[in-house]
Amino acid sequence: MSKSAPKTRIQRKNTATILEAALDVFSQNGYRGSTLDQIAKAAGLSKPNLLYYFPSKEAIHTALLDGLMETWLDPLEALNAEGDPLDEILAYVLRKLEMSRDYPRESRLFANEIIQGAPRIGPALSGELKDLVDQKAEILNNWVAEGKIAEVNPHHLLFSIWALTQHYADFDVQVHAVLGGPDVDPFPEAQRYLTQLFTRMLAP
């Protein structure tokens, strides 16, 4: 499909339908385990129709990842150097936990890409993600130097936040199996636990 021509309403609808279907397929099967036939079937379109909008499986995957990066960076962008340090860090933790609750497919898509060596978003990881993390790490270091939070390595603090929040999306099946089944909601208790954990760890 021509990138220069404006999309019609039907074209926008079909593009969104394809991306939504692909998100399901990729998050369940990973990139290598997914096929255009699976995506077309999930979207309710023929494979030739799908290929009118996206020339390849990689093009669909890349489109999803491009949209995901901005969503992924937003919670960290919101960490404010002028705010109360503990409040700002806890707000970031809870925003990341909410993303695992509200966007589990996106989290698994991102995790699968990283596990495969980030072939499609490697430049974004070493570019915009690293730049943002370094910027926020400087804020965290300043709070440590001012005695506002306990002494911590800022990069490893962020790694631990990612691990402790994204786990609930990426290992959703394991979490529910351990807690007693698919109807169990782990997030209220996870919120209380993580708030307690980081409050105690970061107290100056």
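Above is the first protein from milestone M3; the second protein from the same milestone is given next.
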Amino acid sequence: MSVTQPQVLLVEDEPAQREVLAYNLESEGFAVRRAENGEEALLMVSEARPDLVILDWMMPLMSGIEVCRQLKTREDTREIPVIMLSARSEEVDTVRGLETGADDYVVKPYALRELMARVRNQLRRSRPAASGAELVFDDIRLDPERHRVNRADKELKLGPTEYRLLVTLLEKPGRVFSRDQLLDHVWGRDIYVDTRTVDVHIARLRKALTIHGGIDPIRTVRGAGYALG
């Protein structure tokens, strides 16, 4: 019943730097997708929303600053944490990067250990369960380290898929997830599963959450998907 891997989009136009950084991220347990320019990065974000973007400033076609600006002005992507990488070390450049919406700014050359610490820090905000933080919504409590779910102090028995669905919903209460987004988060991007499968497992999750009573906390948003609360 493990929590799904945090998804990191790495945007870096230098192949050697991109591969070294991707290798280290994967060694830390992150699932990494690679983009070599800003236009490709925006396309990849529209196809599958990452949990974190690591973004180089100086790139051909579109700068990292412009990519960050577009991500932070769109309602569906503004909450994605962005770590900006840049050889620009002047204070005015750091300020510009942060004012564009970047959540963190790392100057090249950087120590890999420091960058990994900053990645984990940002993911604690966007994917708290991945860092072991307890998730709570009303009377529902999920402990990812012990893989236990309680509602009104009564332990619930969930299958692995229902557990991962609940983690995804608990990490973003109120956010509406489409069936395709839930497929990406819970089953993974490389596995083909019919979207109707999501409905089946949502029904099972609802049954498990209400087995001891209480209202159904999962909201169906017609034509859009599902949300918690």
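Note on the second protein: DSSP finds eight helices and eleven strands in the chain.
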